[in-house]
Specification:
Layout (H helix, E strand, L loop, with lengths): L7 H9 L4 E5 L2 E4 H17 L7 E5 L4 H12 L3 E4 L6 H11 L3 E4 L5 H4 L10 E4 L12 E3 H4 L17 E6 L9 E5 H15 L6 E4 L6 H13 L2 E4 L6 H11 L3 E4 L1 H9 L15 E4 L6 H10 L5 E8 L4 E6 L13 E2 L4 E5 L12 E6 L6 E2 L3 H7 E2 L2 E10 L5 E6 L4 E3 L2 E3 L1 H9 L4 E11 L3 E10 L6 H9 L10 E4 L13 H7 L2
GO molecular function, one term: ligase activity
Protein name: Acyl--CoA ligase
Keywords: Ligase
């Protein structure tokens, strides 16, 4: 019988291979049996605290064994897992908690301000489960320590009876185009997408995935679910700032898969010993990239630097799609380097005009996706839901076209287009040209208010060692772009602000230009 609930992935693998290593983190190696038991105990604790099916439970933990046990434990209890960024500011966190009205919060030292300032927790909160032993000494009746909580009875295998269409998780978007939105994903949404990903990546129990992306980010959560589904192993590394140690651990653990966003690979190429480790990564079967547009130059360099047996999967998706929508088959990547590929199994992605009519090959419109992976909607936001979901499916906000072979290309975003002197300009095109100079690690092109042009183009660029001058870069752009697309100013900076997922934070970049 096909598994229809997210926690069934863990339970099925624990039954089939109980002693197999499920997680590796900071020297700790946890088997499927141990992980499943911890999740069962956590679920039992939640039930004892009066958590009901559909109640929200917030998870404020960094990647680790307790995070994974909490995630699956919440689902086993029939509750809704709401992972939040551990570094969320107090003002935003207070707003989100008020919006969610959670039954409880699982947290660690990094979110300890909640233990000192209970006014942040709405009246709905019946418990705070502190993953750090030191934080369980608050003396408040709300606070439980991890070890104390996991001494009760396990929830029986299978957990509560939950319908496949029941809400499983609320995952917040990064907020790159406004306030973060709570994407509601059902068990069916997540399970269907997980199945599609394991199919096209051909994942098996022999796969060992290195995870450097946070689990509260939809791509990080997808890496967890896909490998729990096949009985593989997840190696958690929270130290990507030290790229050399990441590469070394990949070699030591015999990692078969690595995943990242564009900035992840830019740093691996230019700030890590990846090239010198080619012969020490014989097991690295594939790498996957999603999380936004990756410049052509980085893709080309990756294909040269990765071990010859390592396949590179360029992918495209959205939180609203439970992670994944399209991918490029590695064997077609060299000839389709600018493409986001074709739809994954079970999903449809069409190019539509503003009236909802499908456009012929080569004509630009909006990418609209449909399938069992598409979200239920946005939490407490029917208007926002109606703006992106209709009878045609999920309107991604991305503009693009389809070629004669059915491969899709993204040309920009509706909400990122800039009007400069009467011209509509996509900053992605300008960023691509600047990256092709070969002298930058990464770049972002922004539109600053201008009394004459409406907007003026300004680029923030991180140089690669040699410190190119802004004049030489502008001259390079003049040779590649029409005059109205050339940035009026290029500012060289040490680093670009980013979200914890690794995506560039355009809002913070704008504040740098203020």
């Amino acid at each position: 019988m096909e598994l229809q609930r997210v926690h069934s992935f863990l339970e099925s693998s624990a039954a089939a291979r109980p002693d197999k290593v499920a997680l590796v983190h900071d020297g700790e190696r946890v088997s499927y049996r141990q992980l499943n038991r911890a999740a069962n105990l956590l679920a039992g604790f939640l039930v004892q605290r009066g958590v009901l099916p559909g109640d929200r439970v917030v998870i404020l933990l960094s990647n680790g064994v307790k995070y994974v046990a909490s995630y699956y434990g919440v689902l086993k209890a029939g509750a809704v897992a709401v992972p939040l960024n551990l570094e969320t500011g107090q003002e935003t966190l207070s707003r989100l908690l008020d919006e969610l009205q959670p039954a409880g919060i699982v947290l660690e030292q990094g979110a300890g301000h909640l233990l000192q300032q209970f006014h942040l927790a709405p009246p709905s909160v019946r418990f705070l489960l502190a993953a750090d032993a030191s934080f369980a000494q608050g003396g408040a009746h709300l606070v439980w320590g991890w070890d104390e909580a996991l001494t009760g009875e396990e929830l029986p295998q299978g957990g509560r009876t939950i319908a496949p269409d029941a809400l499983a998780s609320i995952i917040y978007t990064s907020g790159s185009t406004g306030q973060p939105k709570g994407v509601m994903l059902s068990h069916r949404n997540i399970v269907s997408n997980t199945r599609s990903i394991t199919e096209y990546l051909r994942l098996t129990e022999n796969d060992i995935q290195m995870v450097v992306l946070p689990f509260f980010y939809v791509m990080g959560k997808s890496l967890l679910n896909t490998h729990m589904a096949v009985g593989g192993t997840v190696v958690i590394n929270n130290n990507f700032a030290y790229t050399a140690s990441v590469i070394r651990q990949m070699a030591e653990e015999g990692v078969t898969g690595f995943s990242g966003v564009p900035s992840t690979y830019a740093y691996l190429l230019h700030r890590s010993p990846l090239a010198s480790f080619r012969d020490r990564l014989p097991n690295l079967r594939y790498c996957t990239q999603a999380g936004g547009h990756m410049p052509r130059d980085i893709k080309e360099r990756l294909l040269q630097v990765l071990p010859p047996h390592t396949k590179l999967f360029v992918m495209y998706g959205a939180t609203e799609a439970a992670a994944r929508l399209t991918y490029v088959e590695p064997e077609r990547l060299p000839e389709k380097l600018g493409s986001i590929g074709r739809a994954i199994p079970g999903v449809s992605v069409r190019v539509l005009d503003p009236h909802g009519e499908e456009l012929p090959d080569g004509e630009c419109g909006e990418l609209v996706a449909s399938g069992p992976n598409i979200m239920i909607g946005y939490w407490n936001d029917p208007e926002g839901t109606a703006r992106v979901l209709d009878s045609n499916g999920y309107h991604t906000g991305d503009l693009g076209y389809r070629d004669a072979e059915g491969y899709l290309y993204v040309t920009g975003r509706k909400d990122h287009l800039l009007k400069v002197g009467g011209h509509r300009i996509d900053p992605q095109e300008v960023e691509e040209v600047l990256m092709s100079s070969g002298s930058l690690l990464e770049v972002v092109v922004l539109g600053l208010d201008d009394p004459l042009l409406g907007k003026k183009l300004v680029a923030l660029a991180v140089p690669l060692g040699g410190n190119p001058s802004d004049r030489s870069l502008i001259s390079f752009c003049h040779g590649k772009l029409p005059r109205h697309k050339v940035p009026g100013e290029i500012r060289l900076v040490a680093a670009l602000p980013k979200y914890p997922s690794g995506k560039i934070d355009r809002v913070s970049c704008l504040s740098l230009c203020g």
